[in-house]
Design goal:
With about 270 residues, the protein is mostly helical. The protein has ten helices and two strands. α4 runs parallel beside α8 and α7 runs antiparallel to α8.
Amino acid sequence: MHYFYMISQDGSSSHMDPLNYAFLLLLVFLITVLASIGGVGGSFVIIPLLLFFGYDFIFAATMGLLLNIINTATASRRHLQQEVVDFSVASHLIVGSLVGAPLGAYISEFLPVDTITLIFGITVLLLGLQMIQQRNKESLAPFELSRRVKFVIMVFVGIVIGIMSGLLGIGGGALVLPFLLLMGYPTRVAAGTSAFTVFFASIFGFVSKLALNQPEIDWVVFFGGDLMSILGAYLGSHLMHFKINQSQIKMVIAFLMLSIGAKLLMEQL
């Protein structure tokens, strides 16, 4: 009979208690609800959560991408209905991420786990600071660039997003949104295009992780996390119709990211 297990901090195998499973899945549900309301992916919180429960980084990053796919699929559906996705822009970012995702997963094969965790901690910390900085800004002063130069830059940014997905297990939405605002796109179009792009970047990263890094999967968390993320994304999407202050939700997420990033850095330094 197959038993699910976790790797404890000292490297020994230990069985996962059903109560711990229930608590972990409840947290995944709550994080997904908040992330959906805030309009961001939840992988940057899900990954440290799984690390805290004793899972290795490769599995945590793979699960983060899978749950990000579910979350951004819900957001993308809403944005497509509102017709705020610029497919011309998204196509360039998606092509870049298709190249970058397997590259990121390949690079992770040669980097020590501690190094990847350190990079992840720094990234989360910077993204948290960025979210706080942009909390009250609806748009940014755009750069004046030619159409051709913009698209070349977009492909490059797509590659960076893909590398982030394949290496760190995050979709890169916090990078795409301000980038599109800097390129002069309206806020609603930037948000819709960002969610649509991150959906595909997360898929490419997830497939690359499975194919190249071959994580050892805990199927209870795998399927249970899927279900909780679907329910959380649905509830979060529904709650967005009510007068919930998205700015305050984003601030909660940002401070959570800062705490997580600081903790990971202190552990690795």
